[in-house]
Amino acid sequence: MDAKRIFRVSELLLYLTDEAITAEQMQELESLLLSDRTLLEYAVDYLIESNIIRRECRKIPAQESSAEMTTDFDTDLWKMLAQFEIEAPAIEIPQEKVQKEPVEMLKFERTPRVVHKSSIYAVIASVAAALLIALMVVLKPVRPTVAMLTDSIDAEWAYSKSELVHGDLLRQEELTLVKGFAEITFDDGAVVLVEAPAKFELESSSMLFLSSGKLFSVVPPEAVGFTVRTAQAEIVDFGTEFGVAVEESGQVNTYVFSGKVRVSSSDQKKDKETLWLTQGQAAATDHDGNLSRQNSMHNKRIFVQGIETAESWRSYLDVNLIQNPGFEQGTIGDYTPEVTGKKEVGDVAIQGWQDETAATVYTYHGSTDDFPRLGHDPIPDNCGQNFFVGMTDNEIYQDISVGQLGYLIDDGNGLSFKLSGWLGGYDSHKDSLLVTASFRDKQGQEISRTSIGPVSAAERKNQTMFIYKQADGAVPTGTDTIRIILKTTRSYGMADSFADNLKLVLTINKDISSLLR
Fold this sequence. Notes:
Largest sheet: 13 strands, mixed
Helix content: 10-25%
Radius of gyration: 43 Å
Number of helices: 7
Strand content: 25-35%
Structural class: alpha+beta
Number of strands: 22
Distance between the termini: 49 Å
């Protein structure tokens, strides 16, 4: 230990206990103690012992002064001794030469008192307690990191002076999410999406304790065994996607989206119950630890299953999400009835669509009246060069992934859609075309659907033409994919059903600028 530093600490502690320390000296003392654990330990011992000594001293009763002198005093004797001192001859005492050694002079400056005498002992005790707490903080083992905050949306944390940001490492600690969503990736590989309000504790790199709120977890093969504990239940994963919700009543609901989990009662006062759950199954554990199977909650909003940083939403909102919506990409079919002997367009693969049927693409610039022609028939504005032709009973489709918008879809923020397009037919022919938006979950199961069309010959007044159709509504919760389907129904001959300029546009009635990171 540095002698000068400990001497200075001793000096400052002396000022402190002698009620003479200034604010600047107190700040210097704090700086020294925080810079060296040994000095801190020394100061704690000093103040504790000083406080004990002063406390014991207060127990000693004060001595009462005597009002009268009781000892006899011989005045004549003292006068005789004084006279002898005056008259006695001087006596010389030999002087020894003493080797003088240099002595370091220490200068102590006594500064004005800044602490009232009546409170000095309380101050000493308080400082000692504060230093003990500081010592505990310094010596306390650092808790290991077990996870990372990998994403969040509109997240607000309790008991935190600074907001957590993406990439922050998380230790074994208790956290409270007041608002929004937070994605946490554990060191063992499990990914947990927590929905506010929620209170939880990160217990290890493969375990979480959920006190209240909801979470959705995706567990890859390398993280099998990831465990969510609650006061009533323990949920152990075996490679799956599952959700856990702790209600205000204390009931714990567990739902499995894929794979398998084991749910056990954590009630120690009774025999532990265990249920195995697989895809689409659910269980509830009540406040008393009773475990039971539940009906599937598949079509209800239960958990938000995915988020993306809000910046990525821009590419999905207020734009047409359909690929090759006007059938301008790729090649067009040939129409040569004089060669083939058939009034039908040659089949082509339609780019951007799953097309395994006779559906095809033709041009507005053809030379025949058998199909809509530019300058001859009513056709859509900004129609481009080509349009879709059904040809026969068929169905083509394309899938649009919207899982990145899970927060907007599932958190009730008013995500809306509009499906539109120009649909038509030939003359009085009754062939028809239906355009459908099928909203599907992560397992590919349809949640709901909305369609436009068909356009009847009567609606077209038996003319070769297109009519604009549209439908709108709210994107249903749980949607992960929107499948756009074109379904043709033939009445006879070639199916003269047409489509062009299809659109699927998503919009929200909320300003997302505040959510952008």
